[in-house]
Write a structure and sequence with these properties.
The complex is a heterodimer. Chain A is α+β, with helices and mostly antiparallel strands. Chain A has 3 helices and 6 strands. In chain A, the strands form 2 sheets. Chain A has a 3-stranded antiparallel sheet with strand order 5-1-6. A 3-stranded antiparallel sheet of chain A has the order 2-3-4, covered by helices on one side. In chain A, a hairpin with a 2-residue loop joins strand 3 and strand 4. Chain A is globular, with a radius of gyration of 13 Å. By secondary structure, chain B is of the alpha/beta class. A 9-stranded mixed sheet of chain B has the order 7-6-5-4-3-2-1-8-9. In chain B, strand 5, helix 6 and strand 6 form a beta-alpha-beta unit. The longest helix of chain B is centred in the middle third of the chain and has 17 residues. Chain B is globular. Chain B starts with 16 loop residues before the first strand and ends in a 15-residue tail after the last helix. Classes of the chains: A alpha+beta, B alpha/beta. The interface between A and B is medium-sized, with 17 and 18 residues.
Chain lengths: 91, 393
């Protein structure tokens, strides 16, 4: 498995779609035969997983949440999301 | 997900999963088809405009997963128009197809319209057996189409309904799925409704076959970890507990049949009781919230013993209403596949019979086609057809 470092580019997993679902009042991740309802922090990260590097994702999050110390949490989330196939990690 | 167990009158929440059965026309004749036995009676298919309205209204209700199904949905020439509307509305859409009638251009046009993924069904790992259970199954063409689905970048679900005749091909089936590059493999053991109930004796496997197949599936799951997801789903008959059919009646699933009848499950058309509400006469919001049919088995109030006082009633919701009806003549009893049902021995006997050597393999299959459908409609459909009267192909 690819290690996720600052230069890794993150995209959504094959066939995954990220969108706002009014009836769920939440962002969701859609994939064949299933759906994950996302909490606020997961959707804040996934919103930026469009081919950007991890460093750029962190930068965007720091701008959005200037007072939060979130690097470790974001890394842990990305590892977990990668394991579940929600995201792909590339060069 | 919705909270289960809401009583009628309470807000039933939103459906999540919409199945659009566009047509019951189909080039295949699978002997375990879940379509109604009298499908040949469904002649007045909804028009394009009617389907477009249904898509909008169901999306408005909150459904997000959409399956275009049938019969064979590719038979509908307006499929691209419906897919495009579904994409525009924010559905995540799936084409549930046999691959027969498909070609590269149509796949590309559907992709252009916004189709998200494709579920292609295989009947077996060889042409000969595929033809045996489905009429002319066009095995080589389906393989070519599975490769094309991959080549065009769709996520691909490969679905195989398992039964007595193809379970021993499990190794070859999984090898085929891996060779074709499936992302997901659904190994769904036959559930005995519709045509499968009619062909039950011929289709039911021995327990030994099932255990062997599951073991092979587990081995492949390990081998393909991270590349191909494998689901092996047992039939309720063999498990002692039913699965939570539809995740509970009227909680998650809504389907619309080719003629516009709204259905809370695939088999609802054969259940006695309230008529199926038609989208030609009612809005989808009313059908979901108010219609007698969708409220009939919502929550737990309708349940009889032993379900009524069972601690597991919120887990499996009493099981499958179609199984209950087919096995007992009463759609409201505890699903007899549950070992707590007083009628469970009917299921146990069927399972034991399937363990006897020899005989069941000799049973002919009654293939699902319009001629047989019309004959069955004329013969008056009885809930427990005698397999001995089924006609040989």
């Amino acid at each position: 498995m690819t290690a996720i470092g600052p230069d890794t580019r993150i995209t959504l997993g094959h066939g995954m779609r990220f969108q706002w679902e009014p009836s769920q009042e939440a962002h969701v991740l859609l994939y064949p035969e299933g759906m994950v309802k996302l909490n606020d922090s997961a959707s804040a990260v996934l919103k930026h997983c469009d081919g950007r590097r991890v460093s750029e994702i962190l930068e965007a999050l720091h701008t959005q949440f200037p007072d939060a110390d979130l690097d470790a949490d974001v890394h842990a989330f990305l590892e977990d999301a990668h394991e579940r196939g929600w995201i792909r990690a590339g060069e | 997900m919705n909270a289960a167990g809401s009583a009628p009158g309470n807000d039933p929440g939103s459906p999540l999963w919409f199945l659009a059965e566009l047509t019951y026309r189909c080039p295949l004749q699978c002997a375990y088809c879940s379509n109604p036995l009298d499908f040949a009676r469904y002649r007045e298919e909804l028009t394009t405009d009617e389907w477009l309205r249904v898509l909008r209204e169901v999306r408005q209700l909150g459904a997000v997963q959409l399956g275009f199904s049938g019969g064979e949905p590719l038979v509908r020439k307006d499929l691209e128009i419906l897919v495009a509307e579904a994409r525009k509305l924010g559905f995540y859409s799936n084409l549930i197809t046999s691959g027969v009638g498909l070609d590269g251009d149509r796949l590309a046009a559907l992709k252009e319209a916004g189709l998200d993924h494709v579920q292609i069904s295989f009947q077996a790992a060889t042409a000969e057996l595929s033809d045996d259970v489905a009429g002319r199954a066009q095995f080589a063409h389906k393989e070519a189409m599975a490769r094309e689905i991959r080549r065009q970048g769709y996520p691909m679900v490969l679905n195989v309904v398992l039964h007595r005749r193809n379970l021993d091909q499990i190794e070859e089936i999984l090898q085929m799925a891996a060779d074709l590059g499936a992302d997901y493999v659904e190994l769904a053991n036959t559930q005995y409704h519709g045509w499968a109930y009619l062909n039950r004796t011929a289709l039911m496997p021995s327990r030994r076959q099932l255990l062997h197949a599951e073991e092979v599936a587990n081995r492949w799951r390990k081998r393909m970890e991270g590349r191909m997801k494998i689901y092996f789903i047992w039939s309720d008959y063999y498990e002692g507990r039913p699965k939570p059919c539809m995740n509970g009646w009227g909680t998650t699933f809504i389907g619309v049949a080719p003629d516009g009848s709204a259905i809370p499950c695939h088999g609802a058309a054969m259940l006695p009781g309230p008529a199926l509400p038609s989208v030609r006469e009612h809005g989808l919001d009313w059908i979901w919230r108010e219609s007698e049919l969708f409220n009939r088995f919502r929550g737990t109030e309708w349940m009889q013993e032993p379900c009524r006082s069972c601690p597991e009633r919120g887990k499996d919701f009493g099981g499958c209403r179609c199984q209950a009806y087919l096995l007992s003549g009463d759609a409201a009893v505890t699903d007899p596949t549950c070992s707590l049902s007083p009628l469970h021995e009917r299921v146990r006997h069927a399972v034991e019979r399937a363990d006897l050597p020899g005989a069941p393999a000799e049973q002919p299959l009654l293939l699902r086609n319009a001629r047989h459908s019309r004959q069955l409609s004329e013969a008056e459909n009885s809930p427990e057809p005698d397999p001995a009267t089924t006609e040989q192909r």
